[in-house]
Amino acid sequence: MRTIVSACLASVLALVAGSALAADKEIAVVVKTVNSTFWQNVQKGATAAQKESSGFTMTFQGPAAESAIADQVNMVENAVNRKVAGIVLAPSDPDALVPAIKKAWEAKIPVVLIDSQISDAGKQYYQSFLATDNEKAGELCAKALIDKVGTTGKIAVMSYVAGAGSEIGRVGGFTKYIKANSQLKIVGPFYSQSQMATALNQTTDVLAANADLKGIFGANEPTAIGMGRALAQAGKAGRVVAVGFDGNQDLQGFVKDGTLEAIAVQGSYQMGYLGVQSVVKLATGGKVDKFLDTGVVLVNKANIDQPEAKNVLY
């Protein structure tokens, strides 16, 4: 009887130890929203890295919308409470996520940020930041627009979530370059909250109110898709020079049919892949760089079928 009890106890202890090990080996990936092919491509990269990382599991989460910041904070706090091995986070707000990241730091859980930065108050609480250099990417888009519309006239900026780290750099870089290198008048920015339908309606209104508009910039995936659809519906496709951001199938189609002059495409797969890879390194005692530029490629009709574009399109 004692032998049976001992065996049962050993089995229970093994199960408990196994559960603890599973929690300790979990990598929590928390993105801005799961309802976007951009973030779904990030997930593909993260999954590939997890499969290469022996013994580690992965969870992938994000709010229903990028503007649901409180939901994202809760997801990070829950990951800390689960005592995960590490967190890969794309923060939707530079300030709101700082306390949650601090909790991870206090629990000795490594945090790797992707896509967007947090405020200076939280810089000591994460170990690495992997992203597009959004300011340079914004400049690249501004240059592409100036090359087509010239240096005088009126352009519009269709943005997404005011204050998001990527938005500050991207739209800031775009605006700064336009002001420094042209006399173009900027209408906006208008904030879609990363909702395609909102961007479509906003762009429709902008086109109606500005018959002399020469160019327009859509600063992320859902915003650029809404912008492209509005241009097509208004009969302005190809007549108003449009530059978008990100590279899903809809945006590729707009480049091919001339609705968009170009799209700036980030290495979204790389963000997920390198994010998980970095957390695994940190969780196993390794070191990583504080910042890693995951790059951007300007895709247009001329290069859309070339390897440099195909490597980043999704």
Automatic annotation (TrEMBL):
Domain of life: Bacteria
Sequence ranges assigned to domain Periplasmic binding protein in this UniProt record: 27-286
Subcellular location: Cell envelope
Example of a GO cellular component annotation carried by this entry: cell envelope
The keyword Phosphoprotein appears for this protein: no
One annotated GO molecular function: carbohydrate binding
InterPro entries in the record: Peripla_BP_I (IPR028082), SBP_2_dom (IPR025997)
Signal peptide: 1-22
Keywords of this entry: Signal
Pfam families per UniProt: Peripla_BP_4
Family: Belongs to the bacterial solute-binding protein 2 family.
Name this polypeptide is given: LacI family transcriptional regulator
Organism: Azospirillum griseum
